[in-house]
């Protein structure tokens, strides 16, 4: 696996520019270079970072904040080639166990255990376990999520519709058809169509799983033209084309978030973390108007994904003690309180610490979505994912190094089908070829 990852990283490096070296000595001390994904929760942390610097004289923070697809590529190339550009990197539970196995990340367990009050037992178990390798944590979670469906209760009531607590995808498609109101500028649903293995493939893979599809069978034969995969792809593409948002092929999490918060979508299926923005009076026109229910299903009992944006220290980072101080600051219980008081309790990083859900102010602010979020994360267990055995792990991703490239390629085909540039069958035929090449390489090494 190490060689597979290194080759992929080398390819990425050819297309990426460099960055100032990590651990640089600045005026009066050291400067930590932190690679971070640009989204509202991370931006809140950047805005509060002067409080870290005030509490740690001599340590300056330099953030490299990039959109998700760019951040993944930049961070992967740096860490895998041991470039040393970054002291701290934001990664997920996709990268963490793979990179830990290859010796690319610092083992954080000694820091976790040696920091008074950090309380790793407070982490939600499934989130903590997803960032562990051989019993040790190699990344610490900033926020955790599953996926669920947000819907406009007022629009449902007006249309005489009732949302079940555990809807099927066919029910959602029927609702979307009835609620789609192009004259009013309201789409029946918002679904990601933007290319990226962490963009449109995240929700789509959960649809594929619950339709009985898989990427590979147990012998690593690609399954992207199977009847189940075709059924899932046709359903997803048709739903978003017929009743989804305008410009769906370029809409990702951020774009759907904006549309839903502005009242331009009746439903939105995506990450549970979306609820904080939906209920934020400063950014949303639909505060208090949404209900939240479990990820829709077809053949499985549950279909929500399991994901966490987390922080890790590359093995080659030079200033690990100060780097851990920053990780501790951004992922401890006090940070939750800081965000709640500074930016409002809807802005608190969700889905990570059990204690967050015991804070009275947070309970009040998150009453519409706190329990659905916890229920969704709890239901996101690997045994609920597929209807048949598969040789890989992961819910909304395939847990192999090649998926960064393979998933991106397939996501581009899916996006092209959503845009009407190619048919679903054409998209899947090409995707099958990409996947079969990867599957063949695994069969050769078995």
From TrEMBL:
Keywords: Signal. The keyword Lipid metabolism does not apply. It holds the Pfam family SBP_bac_1. Residues 1-22 form the signal peptide. It comes from the Bacteria. The keyword Signal applies. This is Sugar ABC transporter substrate-binding protein. It comes from Amycolatopsis bartoniae. The gene is smoE.
